[in-house]
Every structure is written in structure tokens, then in C-alpha cells.
Amino acid sequence: MIATMMVMAALARASDIGVADPQRRVLLDALRPAIERDLGQKVQFVVRTLRRQDRWAFAHVVPQTRAGGAIDFRKTRHAERVREGIFDGPDVYALLEQKDGRWMVREFVVGPTDVAYAAWPDEFGAPAGLLQLRTP
After folding, report:
1. Domain with 60 in it: what CATH number?
2. For the chain, how are helix, strand and coil distributed in percent, rounded to 5?
3. What Å distances lie between residue 26 and 31, 76, 104, CA to CA?
4. Is residue 136 one of the residues assigned to a domain?
5. pLDDT above 70 (res 5)
6. Mean pLDDT of the chain
7. Cβ-based neighbour number of residue 78 at 10 Å
8. 31, 43, 69, 71: most buried by Cβ count inside 10 Å?
9. Residues 6+ positions from 68 with CB-CB distance below 8 Å
10. Interatomic CA distance for residues 59 and 52, integer angstroms
């Protein structure tokens, strides 16, 4: 019960970043180069979750081609994971940190088969409530 209340309090401090918020573009522009390098192509994002708390931000996005099409992950560095069945779809989860006024990607994972970002609060010191996915 107490743990649930602590998570709820942490979530209250994390704020979702909406479509009209100028921070949205800044955060996505900070994330985009890392994902483009990883996938070997230009991308745009479908945003599932974009949230900020203090100097930290968490993104759950689905990359797609600049034309709006699905990424063929069999043609990326993730091809072997796709073939082996250890690639769980196009979802990307990322942790960003603001340092000296600039957002930097601290970590990201593409198509994880587990909750790969669960360790990020311990690993990087990010607020645990920031990383909680909300269910619709």
C-alpha cells in the first residue's frame, strides 16, 4: 500500500508533454539522431508516451519512415533478433537527461522483450515514477 502511494506521488510530479508543448519537438529532435543511427535510416516518431520530470525525460515512441510507413526491422541491425523471435515489435523506450540546457539520450532500447527500462532509475538516478507506463 505504501509503495503504491509512493509511486502515485512520483507520477504526480512527472508531467506528460502534449502535442502543443514546445518541449515535445526539442525532446524528439534530441532522440531522433540516436534512433536514426541505430536503424540506419531517417525516421519520424509516433509518440505513445513523452514525459518529463525535473532534468529527466522518458519517451515511448514507435519510429516510422519519413513517408509514414512501417520500418522493416529485417533490414536493420536488429534483423537477427527479428529472425530469432527475440524482437518484440517496433517500440522504442528512451531516457533523456538535460545537462547544461541540452537534452542528451542516456539510454534507449528498441523492441525489447521485457521491461528493459526498469533498471534505469538505479542505473542512472532517474525518478522511478517517470518511467511508469500508464494504461488507457
Report:
1. 3.10.450
2. 40, 30, 35
3. 9, 26, 11
4. no
5. no
6. 90
7. 18
8. 31
9. 44
10. 9
Place of cell 528512451: 94
* Residue 13 confidence (pLDDT): 83
Please count the structural domains in the chain. Answer: 1
What are the helix (H) ranges across 14-133?
Answer: 22-39, 79-84, 120-124
Retrieve residue 111's grid coordinates: 523492441
How large is the C-alpha radius of gyration of the chain?
15
Q: The pTM is what?
A: 0.87
Backbone angles phi, psi at 100, to 5 degrees: 55, 40
Is position 94 within any domain?
yes
Kindly report the length of the chain: 136
**Alpha helix (H) residue ranges in 14-135:** 22-39, 79-84, 120-124
Half-sphere exposure of 33 (CA within 13 A, CB side): 9
Structural domain containing residue 127: 2-131
Does a structural domain hold residue 122? yes
The whole-number average pLDDT for the span 82-98 is 96
